[in-house]
Each structure stands twice: as C-alpha cells, then as structure tokens.
Amino acid sequence: MFSHFKNRVSLVALVVFLVAGLSYVGASGGDTSEQSPSSQHASSATTPNQTSATKERACRLPEPIVLRHHRANVSRCRFFPDSDKAITLGNDGTARIWDAKDGTLLRTLRGHSAFVTNVDISRDGRLVATSARDGSARLWDAATGRSLFTFPGGRVDNSAVQFSLDSSKLLIGKSDGEVSTWDTSTGEQIRHYCNTSYVSCLEDAYFVLDGKYVLANNAKEEKIFIWDEANGQLAKELKTSGINYATTITPDGKKVLAGGDEGHLWQWDYETGESDGHKSAHFATIVRLSFSPNGQLFLTGSLDGYAKMWDYKTGKVLQTLHHGDGVITAVFSPDGKTVLTASYDWTARLWDVESGRLLRELNTHSGDLHQAAYSPDGKKIITASEDTTAHIHTL
C-alpha cells in the first residue's frame, strides 16, 4: 500500500539521521551509526539498542524455512489461527497456503489477474478472503483452494477485506471510497456504506468494537468515517489536519488514533467525536499503529526509519526502535512481551518491550521487506519480501 513512498524513504532516513542522529540515544544508549540496506543485509551491525552478546546470538539463529514458489514480489503474509499454516500474497496474481512446520506448499489460489494486495482469514480457519488490483475480491475454501464467490469491483483497486467475528459477513473497502458488506454463505451484498469521492483515497476499512461499527480511513479527504453496522447510518465523521494513512481504535473503545503525513499523530474521543489534538511524533509519514494486548502501550511505525513505543495514558515515548530505512511493520507479540518490526532495510527485528533491547535481527532476505507477522501462538515469525520469497522463523 505504501510502495509509492519507497523511492524517497532512504533519503528521509538519511535526513533524519543528520538532524537527530548525533543526539539520539536509544533505550540502552550507544552507537547511532546507520548502514545502507545492502550492507545491513551482509552483516548484523550494532544498533543503539543492540549489545555485542545480542549481535552474536542473532548470528547464530537457525536458518528459516524459505517459501519460494511466487514469481514476483511477496506483498503480504500471515499465519492461520492454528499457527500451523501460513498464507502469502504475490504480485504474480496468486495467494499461496503453506504448511508452517516444514514449508510445504499446500494450495495455490488462482483467479486474480493482477497483484493480490489484501487477505483475511476467518477465525475458524475455513475461509480466506483476498482482494487484488484487478478490482475484484474473492472468497475461498481454505481446505480445497476452491473459489466460492467473486465480488465485482469494477476498475478500481480493493483496499481492504475483513471477516466479521462470526465469519458470516465480509467487509470490502474500495480505493474509490466505497465500503460494503457481503453475505459469505450466499455471496449477496448486505449493505453499502459509502459512495462519495470516487478518487483514490481509501487506505483501510475494518470492523470495530466487536463488529458493531465499521471504520473507514479516507486518507486524501483527511477524514475517518464510522458507521453503525446494523443500519448503515453514519455515526461519526472525524477530521484530520493532514493526510492520514494509519488508524486504530483503543481496546476500550474510548479513543480513535490516526497517523499520517509529516509524522502527525491525531486522537479523538470516540463518544463525542471531539479532537484531543495532535502531536508531531515522527520526522516522516506514520504508516503503522498498533496496541499492546493489555491496551496500555501502542506502537507507531514510520518511514523515518523508527518505531516508537508509547505509554497510552501519559503519551510519553518509552522506547525508540531503530532501523536503517522506513519501518513498515510494528506489532506486539501475542503475550505483549516483545515487539516485531520490519523495514525496507531488508531486516526484521525483535525487541524486548521492557528494556527496548534488540533481541534478534532477521536479515535473511535479499530485498525490501513488505510485511512481517507473529503466529497466534507467538512461536513463529513470517516475513514477506520483494525478493519473491517469504521466510518462516522459529523463535
């Protein structure tokens, strides 16, 4: 989704380094030197949060399981709910399901005629939904790989697909601003939520508050829309003061957060829709927001090459996690004890939440990373790269 930023990310990271690098002190202090992606891939350089012992440990990591069958960039990756299978999306127009224990290719989902861009898996693992740049979304039987329904999309990309908690509904968000829900048993449309601007603006759409509401992030209109899922009525319209690329709602449902251009971070009271203001959190665009399992901490990931861990109540930065290029994944582990980041610097990194110490650097790819994810049981990590492979690492 953020590929249009990629060409300027290295320059942004260099500027950030020149402006703030000399005074930057990581959670454990120390060296602030950066390397180019190619040199970082060749060697595990010491970072501000990395000790010599950690570096040595990172070098001794077991080799990952390499998933090789895609013929173009692997853009997305995630595990199934049972943690025993994984799915990858490719720019070759396919989605592929793998045995996460040994890397065996189980099924190839064919039908899209362009880059496959988004995926969701039902909570019981029986259904898979994908969307692609051919304008369509598809529903698949995960066990057989059979396409169950194709949801037409016209000439515009689909920006999001997500199942409801009971998997009876599929939410589809289109880049022209349209959002709709569909019955997964019949393939019929249930409700249409948005049909406004007809410009490429929708960054994301998803169910919130246990599926009672639908949230859509309309970046270029600088608005966030929240609808009542039951009746389709607009419940909230939140206005930002800039283009927003990442949104999340707090686990308690009381606040909405958004991150966007120039590192801005906005917050609103959900009940009233009133803005709590915004702050400059990064030197460049924020592309990721995520909360810890207990809701006390949240992460921001930015194209400035940093991820930051924040105390939600105080708004203070607790840890600053460094990469050599734009950070495109920043998530907490299922137990909340570690953080996983991935970057255009070809690496994924595992950090300790309490100390901010770098625990492991995964530098097994030969190209930019597009995504990284934990398995639901927290025992594995999967990474997706432009080098046409995905890697599964055992922790």
Q: And the CATH topology of the largest domain?
A: Methylamine Dehydrogenase, Chain H
Largest sheet: 4 strands, antiparallel
Count of discrete structural domains: 2
Q: Count of DSSP helices?
A: 3
Helical content stands at: under 10%
What is the C-level CATH assignment of the largest domain?
A: Mainly Beta
Structural class by SSE content: mainly beta
Order of strands, widest sheet = 1-32-31-30
**Which segments are poorly predicted (pLDDT under 50) over 5 or more consecutive residues?**
1-5, 7-59
What gross morphology would you assign?
globular
- The CATH architecture of the largest domain can be given as 7 Propeller
Say how many strands there are.
32
Distance between the termini: 28 Å
Radius of gyration: 20 Å
- Kindly report the oligomeric state of this protein: single chain
Percent in strands: over 45%
Write the SSE topology.
Layout: H1 6-21, H2 37-42, H3 52-59, E1 65-67, E2 74-79, E3 85-90, E4 94-99, E5 105-110, E6 116-121, E7 127-132, E8 137-141, E9 147-151, E10 158-163, E11 169-174, E12 179-183, E13 189-194, E14 202-208, E15 213-218, E16 223-228, E17 234-239, E18 244-249, E19 255-260, E20 264-269, E21 275-280, E22 286-291, E23 297-302, E24 306-311, E25 317-322, E26 327-332, E27 338-343, E28 348-352, E29 358-362, E30 369-374, E31 380-385, E32 390-394
Antiparallel strand pairs: 1-32, 2-3, 3-4, 4-5, 6-7, 7-8, 8-9, 10-11, 11-12, 12-13, 14-15, 15-16, 16-17, 18-19, 19-20, 20-21, 22-23, 23-24, 24-25, 26-27, 27-28, 28-29, 30-31, 31-32
